[in-house]
Protein: EAL domain-containing protein
Amino acid sequence: AKNAGKNRFHMFDPESDRKAQFHRNYLDTLNLALVNNEFVLYYQPKVDLRDGRLVGAEALLRWVHPERGVLPPGEFLSHIHGSPLDHQLGDWVIRQALAQGERWHQQGLQLSLSVNISADHLIQKNFAERLGLALAQHPGHPAHCFELEVLETAAIADIEHAVLILQECRRLGVHFSLDDFGTGYSSLTYLRKLPIDTLKIDQSFVRDMLQDKDDLEIVESVVRLAHAFHRVVIAEGVETMEHGAVLLELGCYLAQGYGIARPMPAEELLSWSEKWQTERAWLKLNMAKDS
Ligand code: C2E
Ligand code: MG
Ligand code: MG
Ligand code: MG
Structure:
């Protein structure tokens, strides 16, 4: 034991030890944040560019930090990866979104909602069972109005296993989309093998397609690919109406991005939707397309 101790002392690296300690503390803080109800979901609208219809909303996780204010997931999600909190928080997100969907349905807003789930969480044992339970506990939000966005960049080590889980979840009525499509290693394999309904074109391609011809080609190809495989396609990162006009031209009708709306607290969505309907900004897009 004495020798082992000596060896360990020899291997001791203060820099990596400091990092590991920081990570552990951060994870403790995040665990507490969940207990203290410091997480909230923001919602970003998805619209049909042809008629402006609000077709759904994506739930995006935020941490309302007691001192630092509202933090996006880029700040903290990496610390959760691979820990039990990944699944606990993932389950919380699903339940929270279903509860909100139920509230909106009661207020007369029939919204389709999507949540992001990590591939790790998806392939957890009993995932479909827990999802089914959550759906049953929120009967006011129909399962066919619920979608799971799987990160396409996430390495799904065992595709056959993932297919089984997806099929099991689909039997509950929920839909799947591949998020950030085009950025992963195996986009085409996933498209072919996974029973998914929707491709979400990654925002980096959409954002730059007005300046970058290659990105425009990629967006066009993904739209064509989606149609060929009978998948729904939606563009992320629609920052301006000009993006919208090009997407309409390419046959990509569903869109999401800052140019339409930023992610917002749930309480703001109803009034945003009313304002959006009166402004009718999409009409200009369709006129530009037809002229
Ligand atoms: P994502 O699922 O691809 O979500 C889109 C991200 O792009 C969101 O960032 C959104 O705020 C941002 N965005 C939307 N429109 C635009 C735009 O026009 N321009 C630009 N530049 N950005 C736009 P956010 O909320 O910071 O989330 C980042 C990522 O974190 C998400 O990417 C998703 O992968 C992950 N994430 C978010 N919420 C959850 C969650 O509840 N669970 C898990 N596992 N991951 C989550
Ligand atoms: Mg997403
Ligand atoms: Mg995305
Ligand atoms: Mg992303």
Q: What stands out?
A: The longest helix spans residues 84-106. Residues 180 surround magnesium ion (ligand 4) (CB under 6 Å).
